[in-house]
Amino acid sequence: MPFADIMGHDRIIEVLRRSLCNGKTAHSYLFEGVPGSGRKKTAMMLIQALFCTVLPDDACGVCPSCRKIESGNHPDIHHIAPLPDKRDISIDQLRELQHILSLRPYEAPRKVCIIDPAERMSVNAANSLLKTLEEPPGNALIILLTENAGMLLSTVRSRCQLIRFAPLSPEHIVTLLERSGMPTETASLIAPMSGGSLQRALELDNESLVVRREAVLSRVSQLSHNRIATIFDAAEELSGTRDATLELLDMLLSFFRDAVHLGAGNREIVNRSVRPAIESIAAQRSFPRNLELLERINATKRDVQRNANPKLALDNLFMAMADNR
Ligand SMILES: [Zn+2]
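^ thats the input. predicted complex w/ zinc ion below
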């Protein structure tokens, strides 16, 4: 798999390739981003390029080293994660790792270790890693993956080169889902709700999502101040657990983003199969009003993420949405 297969992280790939060319890769990297944004794939790609015996700054995909990595059994790559049934990565695991790294590599120029998720290292474990991060034995390469670098000890962070992976754009998610064999229409429905994570996109249940989308569009189109029940009933029906409410808000964001797009004169929208419903959202209110509501939905999402009551948050949001100025 060459670097070109990685989507949405051109800038990061450029930086990594340049460091490979100069022979100046860091000892320790910290890859931060939502799971499913491409951190792990990029880490494996970096290792492949580093070990490839044919190309200096990419993976050829055919040399023995590239093929062993593809098939997941290269003897010089080590993965550290919490043991089954354990919450944290223990200090014993890291002691063992340090021993392994101190041994000569079997065939690669250096040993590599991926720690994922790095924020699950216990404080003792993390502290025991500091020296290794600074001066990895045998020139080993250590790559930490985390969802949030802020959850790591600052002493760990400061010893690594931090690389931030932005969530994938809905367009990239659509392309990746299509590559996995999903029809375009389904992929475009799922992508806006994936939060930029391919993993999350693949987990979303397509069929129930289609049904829910219809329900949401129907409720939203009926919101009216003249019939106040339409507001509270919609909030009652559509709110649920915090996660379900956040999913709903992502769906609304995707609808209103499309409506704003249409209002701005663009033809291309994400939710193509419900185009008439999106057109009616765009036509119901003025362009500035739809922009305002888009921001309002974003704010509601932040509130719910910060523990606001989902039902009350939706009551307020739907109240604002019923106002067709
Ligand atoms: Zn190769």
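Residues 52-54, 59-60, 63, 65-66 surround zinc ion (CB under 6 Å).
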